[in-house]
Design brief:
Radius of gyration: 22 Å
Distance between the termini: 70 Å
Strand order of the largest sheet: 8-9-19-14-15-18
Shape: globular
Structural class: alpha/beta
Largest sheet: 6 strands, mixed
């Protein structure tokens, strides 16, 4: 029996057909100019999906079918990760207790492009391509000649860019028969994204959430639980390392380094369990490049070229996802944008840390990575509301920074939230605390253009919405948010515990 589907005008219609073999193929897509009724016969299994055609150039852009690996194009390759006990370069078998084989291959790959599996693309189609939007109202408020664009990743089911890597990580694990996934999360964007991905592929998900965020953001916890995940505050009594931390400090606010140690401990002790990381590692940054690949095409479609590219950095995956494909074009000599990473003054790994080998976790269980770090013992102040709390920066971003292909600055949290309020009251979107750093830096640049009269094109990474982060906004609106003084002695004490390795 035929069914009738009604689609309204100004929607993007994707027509797919599933053959008897079970493989689905997209036949085409187009934007409707008037309402239509579509009759689908039960004799063939067809699927039609409508999505909003909004944002600059979005309607003409297809989802990338390959991830881009910046390592292939760098003039100097990044230093290798080291085994935490031998200090020798890690071998694939050293990582096998934590990751599936395909992700280990991607972590060490020098291939320029890596194909995205069709099953992953099928999930990406739930929200990709994401819109590129011009912030005209913000431009008007700032009275700037600059043209401001933002690539908005908050349209994903989890509300951030994190599912771009959560989905493939879980899929690769599922392909190898893994049943259980463990991870850490700070604000909860990564944990909720992984819980979402595990729910799609039928894997169990267990998350250690930094205690300070666990208490401050209960709805992120509920979001993870709704998708079927088990969530622990970290440090927890579940792991030996967590119990050790609580014995030393029963009121510990936790840190991402501690939460990573707890999740890694569980993965290492259980053969049917693997670990997933939401940032920092090469394969994570690789998966996020769908952002930049889409954005290049979107900007080409509207005839714009960015003069300045700005993104927030904690571990670095969102920033890398947008900027790495543009760095490729910069290395080719096609464009020459200024690329700027923005981090919180309360956790400034790029601008205040040192470039050295350090552990990715507090317990020293992970491989040593050469990165900009504040020391694996560093714990940000729990009243820091702006996200981005990791002690180190992604090794690949750190390497790119050392090569001089990008710059970095840190901004205090009150300026970030002031910018977020301006953005929300002009563009309508309430940003997550993380991209408020990019917004603040974008406003600085736009105001500089007002002074100089330059009509620069500013491209900003808007990595997620702040619907579950409203307590931070409440603090700002009530006037109780304060800028945190840079604790030099605290960081120096943490840096003193970094292994002394010369390579």
């Amino acid at each position: 029996m035929a069914q009738s589907l009604c689609f309204y005008s100004n929607t993007r219609l994707h027509i797919c057909i599933k053959a008897s073999s079970g493989k689905e193929q997209q036949l085409g897509c187009f934007t409707l100019t008037k309402p239509i009724h579509l009759k689908v016969s039960s004799g063939c299994r067809a699927r039609a999906r409508a999505s909003a055609s909004h944002g600059a150039g979005s309607s003409a852009i297809q989802i990338p079918h390959q991830w881009y690996n910046l390592i292939a194009d760098l003039p100097v390759k990044p230093p290798p990760p080291l085994h935490p006990k031998t200090f020798e370069p890690v071998k694939p078998e050293d990582l096998s207790p934590l990751f599936p084989d395909e992700l280990i291959k991607q972590e060490a790959s020098n291939d320029q492009f890596i194909d995205i599996p069709e099953e992953v693309l099928d999930v990406y189609r739930l929200w990709r391509p994401t819109p590129l939007i011009r912030a005209k109202r913000l431009e008007k408020l700032l009275n700037t000649p600059a043209r401001i664009y933002y690539k908005y990743e908050g349209v994903s089911p989890a509300g951030s860019h994190k599912p771009n890597t959560a989905v493939p990580q879980v899929w690769y694990n599922a392909q190898e028969g893994v049943k259980n996934i463990v991870t850490e999360t700070g604000a909860g964007q990564w944990g909720s994204s992984l819980a979402f991905a595990c729910s799609l592929f039928g894997l169990n998900c267990e998350v250690w959430q930094v205690r300070a965020s666990f208490d401050q953001k209960p709805y992120r916890k509920l979001m993870m639980q709704t998708w079927g995940a088990k969530v622990h505050p970290s440090p927890s009594t579940v792991t030996e390392f967590g119990r050790r931390i609580l014995q030393m400090d029963p009121a510990s606010p936790g840190s991402l380094g501690i939460a990573i140690s707890e999740a890694v401990e569980v993965a290492a002790m259980n053969a049917d369990t693997k670990y997933c990381l939401g940032s920092v590692l090469n394969h994570v940054l690789l998966h996020q490049t769908v952002i930049g690949e889409e954005c290049i095409k979107q900007m080409e479609a509207i005839g714009e070229t960015p003069d300045v590219i700005i993104g927030c950095t904690g571990g670095g995956s969102n920033f890398a996802g947008l900027s790495f494909p543009f760095i490729r074009e910069k290395l080719k000599g096609k464009i020459n944008p200024l690329i700027r990473a923005v981090e919180p003054a309360a956790c400034p790994s790029l601008t205040k840390g040192i470039y050295a080998y350090d552990y990715g976790d507090t317990a020293g269980m992970t491989p040593l990575m050469k990165m900009h770090t504040l020391g694996h013992d560093f714990i940000p102040d729990p009243i820091h509301a702006g996200g981005l709390r990791y002690h180190g920066m992604a090794p690949l971003i750190s390497h790119v920074y050392e090569l001089g292909f990008m710059e970095a600055l840190s901004i205090p949290q009150t300026e970030c939230f002031q910018g977020a309020i301006q953005f929300a009251r002009t563009e309508g979107l309430i940003p997550a605390p993380e991209p408020t750093h990019a917004i603040a830096a974008t406003i600085r640049e736009a105001l500089h253009c007002r002074e100089t009269g330059e009509s620069k094109v500013i491209l900003m990474a808007m990595c997620g919405h702040g619907h579950f982060d409203l307590p931070a906004y409440e603090k700002y609106l009530q006037g109780s948010m304060v800028d945190l003084a840079f604790a030099e002695e605290k960081i120096q004490a943490s840096l003193a515990n970094i292994p002394q390795i010369v390579r």
